[in-house]
């Protein structure tokens, strides 16, 4: 194992603060992302400036300093805290003869290593190619494209090859997008089957490694014997989950809800990646209730909460009822758990009593606007009775001479739909 560590590439993480209020935090995140990418942080370089340089991201003095520190540390790669323009990277590489990786490329690499399913692989590859498209050069040498030393003839040939390379990449993006559409369609058919029922959908969302998958597994065990085949993958690493899993949770009073677990968030998630992961995040968009899982034992939990809220807004998930689920309370000294304060719960996903309390809160939020009513449906409209029995929360049913008498706990939508059958 030790030997493995020695083979890790050592890199320097560097960033310009440019008036970002959470700069220090994003630099710490960058270091975690570097580790998640199986590299090691040898040094950290920061520059305070009101803005970044359009030419080299850092000011010129800093560029020289980086070169010196990298040489002293015997490091060849610098990882940067922002997404840079292709020309900024080119200029930096030209001036320092070092290799630069920006935050977007790093996140894409981490996602790429974690992608296992066809959908996740396609999503990541599309985002990667879109990132590469404006950054490829006619030769491996980034300096060739701009230099005029090769003479007109060479340059012309280079440009043609560049156009050709770009066309190949564009074609591949189109091809992959088509493939993704087919995969998405299959997944959509499955989720449409679900939406035929009126079972409410609860979505776990939150920062990566907060404990969403562990919470899902805890809820899966609720009311049931251990059922390993339904469990989702949980692990102490960034972006353990890249796909969405949906499971049915049965409650003791004959009611059920659907629960989805999905990809976690981090600051400055690349736009292309978010775009690519839209289908994966669809469950959160369709959800009746969001449970935001927060690792309250992490001193940066407030930043993580902000990142999650910002990302949700970016993917168009707004105005949803939300439970703030402060997880890993067991790791926080003096934190009493499980405990509920309004829409907040302090709990541990590893603790059975916590899970019971979380279920109570989910039920309370989910069914707060439900109403128990008695419906009388004539046998001439048996199809409607069948639909209610199939998809609503049934408390009691009787078959009378006049028709089916059903006592059910109905959502506002169902109350409106079946209003003519409601016995007052
Ligand atoms: N001590 C403690 N550890 C927990 C708790 N909940 C989760 N963990 C651990 O935290 C780590 C991350 O948990 P996951 O459930 O994989 O986190 P996630 O939010 O699904 O993470 P991603 O899928 O990477 O976004 C795992 O090692 C869990 O065992 C908890 O309540 N207490
Ligand atoms: Mg997970």
From TrEMBL:
Transmembrane segments: none annotated. Gene3D superfamilies: 6.10.250.2860, GTPase HflX, N-terminal domain, P-loop containing nucleotide triphosphate hydrolases. Residues 142-151 have a biased composition (Polar residues). Residues 137-157 are annotated as: Disordered. The keyword Cell inner membrane does not apply. Residues 200-374 form the Hflx-type G domain. Coiled coil: none annotated. SUPFAM superfamilies: P-loop containing nucleoside triphosphate hydrolases (SSF52540). Keywords: Cytoplasm, GTP-binding, Magnesium, Metal-binding, Nucleotide-binding. Its main location: cytoplasm. Pfam families: GTP-bdg_M, GTP-bdg_N, MMR_HSR1. InterPro entries: G_HFLX_dom, GTP-bd, GTP-bd_M, GTPase_HflX, GTPase_HflX_N, GTPase_HflX_N_sf, P-loop_NTPase. It is found in: Cytoplasm. GTPase that associates with the 50S ribosomal subunit and may have a role during protein synthesis or ribosome biogenesis. Monomer. Associates with the 50S ribosomal subunit. PANTHER family: GTP-BINDING PROTEIN HFLX, GTPASE HFLX. Belongs to the TRAFAC class OBG-HflX-like GTPase superfamily. HflX GTPase family. This is GTPase HflX.
